[in-house]
Design a protein that fits this description.
Blueprint: E1 5-10, E2 16-17, E3 33-38, H1 42-51, H2 78-84, E4 93-98, H3 104-115, E5 121-125, H4 130-140, E6 148-152, H5 156-164, E7 170-174, H6 191-208, E8 211-216, H7 229-233, E9 236-242, E10 249-256, E11 264-270, E12 273-276, H8 280-285, E13 294-301, E14 304-316, E15 324-327, H9 331-345, E16 352-358, H10 370-382, E17 390-392, E18 395-396, E19 402-403, H11 408-417, E20 422-426, E21 435-438, H12 441-448
Parallel strand pairs: 4-8, 4-9, 5-6, 5-7, 7-8, 15-16, 17-20, 20-21
Antiparallel strand pairs: 1-2, 1-3, 9-10, 10-11, 11-12, 13-14, 14-16, 18-19
Helix pairs in contact: 5-6, 9-10
Length: 450
């Protein structure tokens, strides 16, 4: 009897090795190799495919009919519809990923309950039993109708067959890491199982016209678990970010074939599920006290302007190497800004511990936060504070110059709406009495620190 041959496959990038190694040479991940059985049909299958196949009949782009069903399914949450480009497209496959406990299943059950008022919806769970899902549905008030149906299964074959039946308008699968195909020998969650299960489900969705939402796990670094090919296969990739223990939670599109990737929906968790935050700026600044180290930043979540407080704390270090800590802000960017402050403004921060906090649990990816973070550090180090009516935004270059920010008019309008009177921002050619233009970081600190 021929002994089955095995190989070791990296669960991050899909690279294969004849024997186990501690570190994948392709992507650099440690302890990511899993043993899988190799089927001996490779060369024969290639030889057969070379002699078979039919010539495809092509048609001109002009002759292709575009009369397909484009009526989107509304989620019942206007901000989430904007992120998706107008709603869930029939036949589209969406991947929703986020930290455990952040509220992915809660959000999807709310969406399923709303869509089930007019269409048949299937919630397929490979992680929870029917009674566990029923408890959450009862808390959210999602058990009223018979159009929301549930099945507990980890078989990708069975779920794909159910999708191909055409009975359901929306199918939610929680989660793709728990599914497995009977023909694939590896365990659920491996690269081969995720790739093949996703392919089978996506083909079923395209054939039946049903919309499918896949729940994806994330790694400890925050990236989507599994092979990168999973993100390429689906039509929409949504990232669910925020603090799972409190604060605001943000849903943004990382990839969207049918809409923009510049929108964001902001939620907060309550006993009745996730609800949209109508005025996040007012909520974030409600408990602010204007002290040294506190600066109000006009930032953007997608195309939505938000005012958020940046807090800085500067202490003398008790160790030989100063500590830098950032919550909600990139640590490498923080170290760069500290170096610019030391070089361009003559502030001595080499013997200081520096702590940065973005209030509300938000994670900033906006480069216009540079000026606010730098001014907060300088304010805390000097023990001086900014005026109550000042809002700050602008990118800081390595030479200390302040560079322009995206959509400044939206930031300014949001600041005016909340009662701010002046903005420290990059100088522009247009005259604006609200904006106090600043050419470089040193001049901004001299002019606006009291």
């Amino acid at each position: 009897m021929v002994k089955a041959r095995s190989q070791f496959v990296c669960q991050q990038c899909g690279a294969s090795y004849p024997k186990w190694v501690g570190k994948c040479e392709n992507c650099g991940e440690w302890n990511s190799l899993v043993e899988q059985v190799v089927h001996a049909a490779g060369n024969s299958a290639v030889a057969r495919s070379a002699a078979h196949g039919n010539i495809l009949k092509a048609q001109s782009m002009r002759s292709i009919s575009a009369e397909v069903s484009t009526a989107r399914l509304g989620t019942g949450i206007a901000d989430l519809d904007a992120v998706l480009g107008g709603g869930i497209l029939p036949g589209g496959v969406m991947l929703l990923a986020g930290q455990p406990g952040i509220g992915k299943s809660t959000l999807l059950l709310q969406i399923a309950a709303h869509i089930s008022e007019d269409a048949l919806v299937l919630y397929a769970s490979g992680e929870e039993s029917a009674s566990q899902v029923k408890l959450r549905a009862r808390r959210l008030g999602a058990v009223a109708g018979d159009h929301l149906q549930f099945v507990a299964s980890t078989s990708a074959d069975d779920i794909a067959a159910t999708i191909r039946s055409g009975a359901y308008k929306l199918v939610i699968i929680d989660s793709i890491q728990t599914l497995s195909l009977e023909e694939v020998a590896s365990a659920p969650g491996t690269v081969s199982q995720i790739t093949n299960s996703s392919n089978v489900i996506i083909r079923a969705a395209k054939a039946s016209g049903a919309a499918v939402i896949l729940v994806g796990h994330v790694t400890k670094e925050g990236s989507i678990a599994g092979p990168k090919v999973l993100e390429h296969l689906v039509d929409v990739v949504l990232q669910f970010e925020g603090d799972r223990y409190g604060g605001f939670k943000v849903v943004r599109a990382v990839k969207n074939r049918y809409g923009s990737t510049s929108e964001a929906a902001i939620f907060e968790m309550s006993e009745r599920g996730l609800s949209v935050v109508e005025n996040p700026s007012a909520a974030l600044l409600a408990e602010r006290q204007n002290a040294d180290g506190s600066v109000v930043l006009a930032t953007l979540e997608g195309n939505r302007p938000i005012l958020v407080e940046i807090q800085a704390l500067v202490n003398s270090t008790n160790f030989g190497y100063p500590k830098r800590t950032a919550s909600g802000f990139d640590l490498n960017r923080l170290n760069l800004l500290i170096a610019v402050l030391e070089k361009r403004t003559k502030l001595n921060l080499s013997d200081k511990d520096i702590y940065i906090n973005v209030v509300g649990g938000l994670k900033l990816a906006d480069t216009a936060a540079d000026l606010a973070v730098a001014m907060a550090i300088a304010s805390a180090a000097a023990g001086r504070k900014l005026d109550d009516g000042l809002v700050v935004f602008g990118e800081v270059g390595l030479g200390g110059e302040i560079r322009s920010a995206r959509l400044p008019n939206k930031r300014i309008a949001e600041a005016k709406k909340l009662g701010f009177t002046q903005a420290i921002a990059p100088k522009s050619g247009k005259k604006n009495s609200f904006v106090r233009g600043a050419h470089d970081l040193r001049q901004a600190l001299i002019d606006y620190m009291k």
